[in-house]
Design goal:
Layout lengths: L2 E2 L5 H9 L4 E2 L4 E6 L3 H12 L8 E5 L3 E6 L6 E2 L1 H16 L14 E8 L2 H12 L16 E6 L10 E6 L5 H10 L3 E4 L6 E5 L5 E5 L10
Parallel strand pairs: 1-6, 7-8, 9-12
Antiparallel strand pairs: 2-3, 3-5, 4-5, 7-9, 10-11, 11-12
């Protein structure tokens, strides 16, 4: 479901924030800052929220030992140049506080989606919107910002022999191959890497599917 503003590429977004310790993942740029305790985490977020304009783009998930920071426009996760510019400003504030932005240590950043195969997405979407308490017209999102997004993948014919709900895990582009390898080492099977590095299709030992996704390979070819 993640998107980027017109004229903005995933390659540019990734290059802009990479050395700042952020990563582009699914329509947003994110990082994690390790903290000593909840008080330090709260103080950091208060400091960042005071940066002019950041509250329009910034979301923060506070824990006792870390803060997950995500820049985008909400709730649709629409990445804009303004969000990218804020990453540099916020990183300077993080460093001034004596802390470090690190998007890749300890699986720091990822985004989760649930994909539902459907012959008629319009027919089943109201059920999922109601049962989850979500919002949206095409893809669905949690208005509380807590649960994974849900999107609908069109089928041309019923496939009763195949599970029709799978999980998409979007991770930083430089984390994806290791995540795939770890899943295979844990007993998984590679069903397809035809679209890699955009995504790999994996299955657990009973055939339940999951896709590991990155941004590479998703930008339109240069004209």
């Amino acid at each position: 479901m993640g998107e980027i503003a017109a004229g903005l590429t995933r390659q540019h977004a990734s290059d802009t924030v990479h050395d700042l310790g952020w990563r582009y993942v699914l329509g947003a740029v994110s990082t994690t800052v390790r903290t000593r305790d909840l008080a330090e985490a709260a103080a950091l977020v208060t400091r960042l929220a005071a940066v002019d304009g950041s509250t329009e783009h910034l979301r923060a998930d506070l824990r006792a030992d870390r803060v997950l920071l995500t820049l985008s426009t909400w709730p649709a996760r629409w990445l804009t140049p303004e969000s990218l510019a804020l990453a540099a400003v916020l990183t300077a504030e993080i460093r001034a506080a004596g802390l470090t932005a690190d998007a890749v240590a300890e699986h720091a950043v990822q985004a989760l989606e649930i994909a539902v195969d459907a012959l008629d997405a319009d027919a089943i979407r109201p059920f999922w919107r109601a049962v989850l308490g979500y919002r949206g017209d095409a893809g669905l999102h949690d208005p509380r910002g807590q649960g994974p997004a849900v999107w609908f993948q069109r089928m041309d014919a019923a496939r009763p022999q195949r599970n029709r709900v799978h999980v998409d895990i979007s991770v930083p582009h430089d984390v994806a191959p290791a995540r795939v390898a770890a899943a295979l080492d844990a007993g998984g099977t590679l069903l397809s890497d035809a679209a890699a590095p955009a995504f790999w299709v994996l299955a657990d030992p009973e055939g339940n599917e999951a896709c590991v996704s990155g941004w590479e390979g998703r930008d339109a070819p240069a004209a």
